[in-house]
Amino acid sequence: IMPEGPLNDLLVNGVIAGVGGVIVFLPNILILFFFISLMEDTGYMARAAFIMDRMMHKIGLHGKSFIPLLIGFGCNVPAIMATRTLESRRDRIMTMLITPFMSCSARLPVYILLVSAFFPVNQGLILLSVYLIGILLAIGTSFLLKKTLFAKSSDPFVMELPPYRMPTTRAICIHMWEKAKQYLHKMGSVILVASVIVWFLGYYPHHSEELDALDKKISRIEQTEKDFSTKEQKIKELTALRNLKQQENSYIGRIGHFISPVMELLGFDWKISVSLLSGMTAKEIVVSSLSVLYADGTDQSGPLAERLKTAADSSGNRIFTPLVALSLLFFMLLYFPCIATVIAISREAHSWKWGLFAVVYTCALAWIVSFAIYQGGNLILDLIS
Questions:
Q1: In a 3-state reduction of DSSP, which class is residue 61?
Q2: Within the chain, how many helices (H) and strands (E) appear?
Q3: C-beta of residue 270 within 8 angstroms of C-beta of residue 314
Q4: Torsions phi, psi for 297 (to 5 deg)
Q5: What region does 86 belong to: left with phi over 0, alpha with psi -120 to 50, or beta?
Q6: Burial 306-322 (b: 16+ CB within 10 A, else e)
Q7: For the ranges 64-73, 99-108, 167-176, which has the lowest average pLDDT?
Q8: Per-residue pLDDT band at 114 (split at 50, 70, 90)
């Protein structure tokens, strides 16, 4: 019922598309934290660390490192803070540097979106492979650090095992509620602000000679065209073209085009590149950014997965293919830990150089892995065809 204009567009394509695109994944996050709280409340978490000690020593880590790494599947920030239980500074820093490879709950909405949209037959297998490859790369990184920066052997395992306890429904519900509250708080603060910023950068500048010419063309068709179905089709096509040009000429479009030469080698267009940039604040924002950027004016109310499957460039070529989605999945797994994680690493290690090292190493590794997947996949497809 609101008239067309910036406020209408902000609410529909900024707030609702951005926050709404992420909040729908709350049930998946609650399921994840249900099982983590179950392991913590039974007292099994400490025993898991004891069981894993011998294996962890083989990759240069302490048995206690297993607990922070497991917590990392929920959120990397408390996982990094949990490294305080490790007595050795060497073990603490090594554990902190490989924790970002554990797929935190913030990445889960992006995984679910891409897997459900582009891998409908093997959803479970693809999702499991992302988690497993993250673990394998963490092991590989640990080996590398063990041979280079941290050659000293780790300390022996000493840990008190708590008694087994029967978890109570109340304790589990409180744990899940606290995590849900944190998630919803993030929706109403960080992600809301980021969605509005992404919308602003994508909405302005809203006028140019080319855009004004398209507006006049649409207005002329509305006034002169008598056939309703023909008029509707022409307006729909011109509106889609206008929105595409608007996005390309906007501030966020210029940023995306600036970094696109590097990202095109991974199969990513400028919109995906911008979404990944916005995800540096919090990984869930990638979903909200995609939702905002791919609301092209033709079917903004449709599910985001369907919009991604039908998204096309100016030449009519599909932007997302299963290979592009796979490349994006692994880039999401590996690249830039969120800002909160980088700050946590720097604070716990008492040095910004380790936070910077985590940023550079994860981004470089993400680019190399995604490059190998996309270019290797294209090479195999060319050989098959």
A1: coil
A2: 20, 0
A3: no
A4: 95, -10
A5: beta
A6: ebbeebeeeeeeebbbe
A7: 64-73
A8: very high
Tokens of 83: 């490294």
Return d(Cα 45, Cα 273) in angstroms, integer: 38
Residue 266 confidence class, pLDDT cut points 50, 70, 90: very high
Q: 298 with 236: CB under 8 angstroms?
A: yes
Residue 251 backbone phi and psi in degrees, to 5: -60, -45
Cβ-based neighbours of 302, under 8 Å, separated by 6 or more: none
Token pair, residue 144, equals: 């590398």
Based on its alpha-carbon atoms, the radius of gyration of the chain, rounded to whole angstroms, reads 24
How far apart are the C-alpha atoms of 254 and 257, rounded to whole Å?
5
Render pLDDT for 212-241 as a digit per residue (tens, 0 to 9). 888 888 888 888 877 777 788 888 777 767
Nearest CA-CA partner of 155 in 85, 232, 97: 85
User: Amino acid identity, residue 241?
Assistant: L
Task: Give the whole-number percent of the chain exceeding pLDDT 90.
Answer: 18
> What is the identity of the amino acid at 324?
V
